[in-house]
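This follows on from our talk about sequence and fold. Please put the record directly below this note.
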Amino acid sequence: MNTLIDIINEAKKVLNTTEDKELARVIGITPSTISNWHNRGSRPDLFALMQLSDILRIDARELLAIVEAEHAKSEQKQEYWEKMKERFSSSKKELITIIACGFIFSSADCKLELGQNKAISYKYMTPTMYIM
C-alpha cells in the first residue's frame, strides 16, 4: 500500500465489501468523509487511522506515514515520511522473520535482508524437552 486510496481499497477487501458506505459504518464515520479522502479534501484523523489499523492488522504508524507522505507539502517532509514508512514496514518484516524462525524450525539461523546493505541475523534454539 502506497496511498490512502490503497488503504481504503484494502480495508474494503478485508471487510468483503466494495461500498464506501460499509467501510464508513464499520469505522464510525460518514460516507462523505471517505469521499473527501478519495478527493484529497481531507485525510483520516487519528481515530479513523486506528480503526483502519485494526481492520488491516497493520501498525497505525505505517498507515500514518503512508498518509502523511502522500499529503506532504514539501519534498523534505515527503522524504521524511517515506523513510518512516520504510522503517515501520521493515520492523514488521523483522518481527515476522523472528516468529517464523521460532515456529518453523527447532534450531535455525535466520537472516532477513532489509536492503541498503542492511540485514538482521537471528539464531533461534528451542529449549531441550525432558520427558519424565
Summary: Residues 107 and 125 are 5 Å apart (CA to CA). Residues 75-104 form the longest helix (30 residues). The mean pLDDT is 80. The longest strand covers residues 107-115.
